[in-house]
Amino acid sequence: MASPEPPIRGAYGEIITDGKSQKYCDQVKSEVEEKTGKEYTEYVAKQYRIEPAGGRNFLIKVHVGGDNYLHMIVYEPPPYVGGCYTLKRVQEKKKDDPLEPF
């Protein structure tokens, strides 16, 4: 299977479904629960898109039970800077909502 084309700086690339974004979601779960005011027992990354931006922004679709999903943007700083993943934004969505920047 060919790798998706790398995204252009400042633009989100193609949707990826390889499950690698779960680690980013796990690192910001407490921030997500605080911002949404909910606790999630089901919290599974389903797909994501990457935007290079002096680091990387991950736009991630997360299944949180039933037909309920979250779309979140998680920032990963560049390796030479170090630091933690940061939740930039989160929105409550449904299964069929497209994964688009917000």
Describe what this molecule looks like in 3D.
There is one protein chain. It is built from two helices and four strands. It is 14% helix and 34% strand. It is globular. The chain starts with 21 loop residues before the first helix and ends in an 8-residue tail after the last strand. A hairpin with a 3-residue loop joins strand 1 and strand 2. A four-stranded antiparallel beta sheet has the order 1-2-3-4. By secondary structure, it is an alpha+beta fold.
SSE layout and pairings?
Layout: H1 22-27, H2 29-36, E1 44-52, E2 56-63, E3 68-76, E4 86-94
Antiparallel strand pairs: 1-2, 2-3, 3-4
Summary keywords:
102 residues, alpha+beta, 4-stranded antiparallel sheet, 2 helices, 4 strands, 14% helix, globular
Concise description?
The protein is of the alpha+beta class. The protein has helices at 22-27, 29-36; strands at residues 44-52, 56-63, 68-76, 86-94. The longest helix has 8 residues, at 29-36.
